[in-house]
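Supplementary Data S3. Sequence and structure tokens for construct A.
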Amino acid sequence: MRNLFLTLAYNGAAYHGWQRQRNAYSVQQAVEETLSTLLGKDISVNGCSRTDAGVHARNYCLTFETSNPIPCQGLVAAANDRLPGDIAVLSCEEKPMGFHARFDCAGKEYEYLVHNSTIRSPFYKDTALHWKYPIDVALLDSEAKDFIGEHDFKTFCSAECDKENTVREIFSYNVTREGELVRFTVSGSGFLYNMVRITVGTLLYIGEGKLPQGCIPSLIGAKDRTKAGITAEPQGLYLNRVFYDKGQI
């Protein structure tokens, strides 16, 4: 048996998230069906994390076991010939048996894109949040630094979150601008359900004056989802990088 480690990129607009589901088409289902056809045997993959409906990935990692001798380079080419056009395999490599895309992950980096313009762009319809109000990037970058560190992020997770332990460590959080695009880039040990989208929504509310500047520490302490800002829409969110070596973070 071989343990193969694949890196994918996908546009999640047409999918109901990563996770395979009974009544909706997911990225995992598309990938497993393609690999099963290619390798001649039912393939079940282990993904590095879940992503919600409409969320994208620039680097999504998964592992699976197979006895098929196909070379890694050949698997990449053959899979990309068969996958839908909004999913691509970027790389394939062999890992020791027992290596797991999720459990061996040391951290992740997400990026959230906001198209900041009074006029919406049809080209960002499924790939960025349209926000027509002015964004003070320097202010939001400064405010975002209060998320850094190990905290209980109960305030910043969905009410549907089923995790008993809501403590996570944020390594970095930066807000930058490139023309009309504003990027919220956050890395951490792990993330709760909707956590990145709620932190982005909270920062946008601070920028609008709907929440006071300097409120993030008190919001963290409140452990109350109703105190934070909106859950930013899914189309702006990207799983940007996955870390398996703490030295890379």
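Construct B, processed identically:
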Amino acid sequence: MAKIGYIEQVILGEEKGFFSWVFRGLTWPFSILYRVGLGIYLWLYDSGLRKKHRLAVPVISIGNITFGGTGKTPAVEKICRMITDLGKSAVVLSRGHGGKASGPVVVSDGRQVLSSVDECGDEPVALAQSLPGVPIVVAKDRRAGGKLACERFHPSAIVLDDGFQYWQLHRDLDIVVVDASRPFGSGYVMPMGDLREPIRGLRRAHVVLVNVTAAEGCLTDGRVGRVLSTIAPKAELFACRRKPRRLLGPHSSAIDLEWLRGRRVVGFCGIGSPTSFFSTLASLGAVVCESIVFPDHHVYSEADIKYIVSRSAAHAVDAIITTCKDVVRLEGKSAISNLYVLEIELEIDGEDRLERLVKDVLDRAS
């Protein structure tokens, strides 16, 4: 059951038929207008006519240049854990995609989750559950959200989630995550494609994390590395990969990942990169009887849950498995008795080098 729409497949570059070229032809003028408008907007900042807002503490941004999943959320978790391992404190500042809240809202004070998915979106709530001790704040105006975070929590640093295109806020370290198999997505700027801005925007990046999960060796054999080094000559490049962290069973009990080996499962998700999730399940030895894909940030209905349960019954599976982002969107819905959640973390080659860059940012502010 693939619920991703035709237009989304065209934008992502996955549909290459005749009508996809008709769509691109129709949206090409709007893409040009967007690029021109964006260029003027950025020139205002480069010329000093507009000023970026500075917060009272350093800001470390994690972002990407395309829509869809590149491993940005695991990168946010990794940087937050780096900061706390250095004996410092962090607050995550997010826009709260999909949430109804507009003004600054505290999703978590570091001790408990205070807001719902409906109010703040799925990613901030999932981060709040996976980062105990780290407050999470959402705000569409992240200047106001950052001010609230500084005044209430007095952190050593703000980790700005999905902040590469938030030009209004000064960042001390810009980290961009790209997928090695498609670092520039479809190659077309929105709305014609899934690029958020022209690829030359990578010149602003201080660090580029190249997720090689789907294309092992792309960075080490030089192809992707050479291209990125040309586009972003000042950025430091790191290879990284999504790695299964642990499996949570019913009632949130931790289960050894080895339990999956040989088990018949149905997997479902509504994330930016569903293929990586199902590939990870297979790599752990699970027999994936069916992969059910929903759109990114999908709001699950009772009908969706009945469908998932019916498909698992049809295959007589041992478990139904989903992601951390998806499980928070199931709260308040009918329970799935044999539901398991696979937690993912980011493994970074040369992590100590990245940690030194983070430490330098924190030290300069102290």
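The longest strand covers residues 236-248. The chain has three domains: 6-41, 59-241+347-365, 244-346.
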